[in-house]
Amino acid sequence: MSTDFQQARAALGARLRELRFTCPGGRLTGQQLAQRLGWQGSKVSKLENGRQTATPEDLRAWADATGHPGAYPELASWLAGFESHIRSWRRALANGFKPLHEGLSAEIDRTSDLWIWEESVVPGLLQTPEYARHVIQRYADLLGGAGDIEDAVRARVRRQEWLYRPGRTLRVLMWEAALRSLICPPSVLAAQLDRLTGLIGMDTVELGVIPFTVSVKIVPANGFWILDDRLVVAEDWHAELWLDDADNVTLYKKVWKTLRESAVYGAEAHNVINAARRALSPR
């Protein structure tokens, strides 16, 4: 978790503690407040010490229970401010996959230059519908809370229209592992690899592959997208990070450029993809 995020969560916790200390009827202990709210005492402590992220419902209940209902808009604003940087998968998926995809699609729509690094999966902008369906289903199985798989697949496919708009440039780097990971049946992966070979040479797409056999100058981990040098979207198991500060954008761009030094393009990339394709259909 980022230091900035943790500091913001701790600051919100300090504000919550201040509200508990200044109840109109007198200061409440943490246990007394927990009893009013019907919570375990540990939850009050975790929220105040920045060890747990509050939900909007938590904040409204806290404001009401401490006699400060008018403080809720302020608390909600704090939460929205720092959650704009780290978006919990579980919380986001409570509303299904489709809104999650549409949020990123809106950012991509206003982007002209997009840099992508993926270490173990083909990027969504290049996925076939069937491959996308299996990837999304795997996340749904892991995280739960989403049953709109087909809506998510359609949203992901519609997002690919971006590739065919004038003035757009997509620069993709993939580790060879992304070409070989059987996140789907071999036949589905074979079709996906065929699509990748068809994209090589497309004037709006620059596709690079880092083979297993080459030396790398940085650990090939953590997929991320860089949108117009203004936003980085990086994925982890628990959350999606949206980073818009200049220092982080510069850092991720440096990581991308360092990885690119180990990549192959054109005919060499075609050979790596074809080798992965042949491995799926051994004679």
TrEMBL record:
Domain (DUF5753): residue spans on this chain: 113-274
Cross-referenced Gene3D superfamilies: lambda repressor-like DNA-binding domains
Gene Ontology terms, MF aspect: DNA binding
A Pfam family reported for this protein in Swiss-Prot or TrEMBL: HTH_31
Protein name per Swiss-Prot or TrEMBL: Helix-turn-helix domain-containing protein
Organism: Streptomyces halstedii
